[in-house]
Design a protein that fits this description.
Keywords: Membrane, Transmembrane, Transmembrane helix. The chain is mostly helical. The protein has one domain. It is built from 13 helices and no strands. The longest helix is centred in the middle third of the chain and has 33 residues. The two termini are 21 Å apart.
Length: 264
């Protein structure tokens, strides 16, 4: 298993998309922290921030951005698997990486498990480095309106764990869906739109709020600080995290079984 994980790490970092994904997560988060914190500072300086602060805004979590990290890790999870199904050019035989992977790992479920480990490690590592930097940068930009890092960290609290888990679970769901579809295009579009434009659970909530609360995105977002409660059925953060974890593990298990039974 250790050999398979090392091989998947080499393959992952041999993909240009992995560098792009990490770049989106890292530089996108820092850029958004700069833009938002600058906006907050200007609003406070002009005396027009009171209404927003009364609605639940709090400058202590300025810089704690999640959308770029989630999008970046979705790209990572999807492309790490979709690269297996992409055919190379005819000049080099037109084959797929999948054939070589299956020959190198007789247990056909092992590549899925190894990729799961690799994507999880990449995601958690990115979060561990980027989130503290973005919060520190956000508070620095706020200047006299900012807080110390210790105060911000205490206010964010369980969000330091919740956001990385949400981002990694989302990327692993992308990996699982890509495995099932044998293509990353649909998974990439659906998950990015769901994370940054209109969540699927929000639409379901309009007609069946009790069902929407148990969907992975609605359940998982409750791990994020200041998450919006869609309805009276909205889950608590710990319960939401467990529900999203169950969705993730289930989809990965189904994907691994389908992967093992399909022809290369």
């Amino acid at each position: 298993m250790a050999r398979a994980i090392r091989a998947e790490f080499r393959k992952a970092f041999g993909l240009r998309s992995t560098s792009v994904a990490i770049g989106i997560a890292a530089f996108g988060t820092l850029a958004l922290a700069i833009v938002n914190s600058t906006t907050y500072r200007n609003m406070v300086d002009r005396g027009i921030a009171d209404e927003f602060l009364a609605d639940g805004w709090d400058l202590r979590d300025a810089g704690f951005e999640f959308v770029p990290i989630v999008i970046g890790l979705i790209v990572c999870g999807v492309t790490v698997m979709s690269s297996e199904f992409t055919r190379s050019s005819n000049e080099v035989g037109g084959g797929r990486q999948l054939t070589t992977s299956l020959l190198a790992t007789p247990r056909r479920w092992m590549p899925v498990l190894a990729k799961t480990v690799v994507v999880s490690i990449i995601g958690l590592s990115v979060c561990a480095v980027v989130l503290p930097l973005s919060v520190a940068l956000g508070q620095l930009i706020l200047g006299k309106h900012g807080y110390s890092f210790a105060e911000s960290a205490a206010y964010i609290g369980w969000g330091w764990v919740g956001l990385p888990l949400f981002a990694v679970f989302t990327s692993l769901i992308g990996l699982a869906v890509t495995t099932l579809l044998r293509s990353g295009t649909v998974a990439l579009i659906v998950l990015i739109v769901n994370s940054s434009v209109v969540p699927f659970s929000f639409l379901v909530n309009l007609v069946a709020p009790a069902v929407a609360a148990w969907l992975p995105d609605a359940a998982g977002t409750q791990m994020l600080p200041g998450a919006m409660k869609l309805s009276e059925f909205t889950l608590e953060p710990v319960t939401g995290g467990l529900v999203m974890a169950v969705w993730t593990v289930t989809l990965l298990a189904v994907a691994a079984m389908r992967f093992a039974k399909r022809d290369a």
